[in-house]
TrEMBL record:
Keywords: DNA-binding, Transcription, Transcription regulation. CDD domains: CAP_ED. The keyword Transcription regulation applies. GO terms for molecular function: DNA binding. It comes from Rhizobium loti (Mesorhizobium loti). GO terms for biological process: regulation of DNA-templated transcription. It comes from the Bacteria. Pfam families: cNMP_binding (PF00027), HTH_Crp_2 (PF13545). The keyword DNA-binding applies. This is Uncharacterized protein.
Amino acid sequence: MSSLTTPLIRKLESLGRLSSDERESVEAMPLLEKALMPGEQIALEGNVPSHCCLVVEGLLRRYSTLSNGTVQTLSIHVAGDIPDLQGLHLRSMDHTLASIGRSKVGLIAHRDILEVLRKSPRLANLFWRESLVDAAVARAWVKVLGGHDAFGKLAHLACELYVRMEVMGLVRKNSYPLPLTQVQLGETIGASVVHVNRILKKLRGDRLLEHKNGRLVIMNWDGLSEVADFDPAYLNLRDPHYLNLKPAAGR
């Protein structure tokens, strides 16, 4: 199996079963590997894309910039995600994709994806499901932004990313990589840097989580998920194990 397509296959198999022929079809897709530096953009708002971007390693964020210069992070993407899959059918990008920390992506030409999906209706359904789950995550985040205070928003983000990272095998000792700066966290939850700093101190003081050295440590899953009012059902994962995660107590 190509190391570049391994995350994609794992992600697709979290949503549905793949036959050996379907795995081979995914593995055979031509990918152009590209390493990204922190903050480097891979797709620009307003551009007309010809490729989709598969996250292979690291994290990307989807964001939009308002006319006054304000940046709003719309979503965070982990290994296995194709955050611009909608580019197959929409003419231009309505957001920018950029790396959080260092990352690696695989660029797949639209024509190559469409050819694979044309030959395999089941793969087409799984790619469609991936796009629908991405939309479900966006709807969940709209609900969080409208219904939670900043404390709950950050708790929800931490819980969601924990589950998505666990699916991809990226959680180690109740922690996962999250090299977001406090400025970027503020752009995600709609809070000032000062407020983000206070929230992180309170979450750490309440022994719920700690964000340190580019990693987020879950210290008390039950307490954190209660603050977040978090239910992972909207992630539509095939394995029911992820609906009832019980991470061991952290430090």
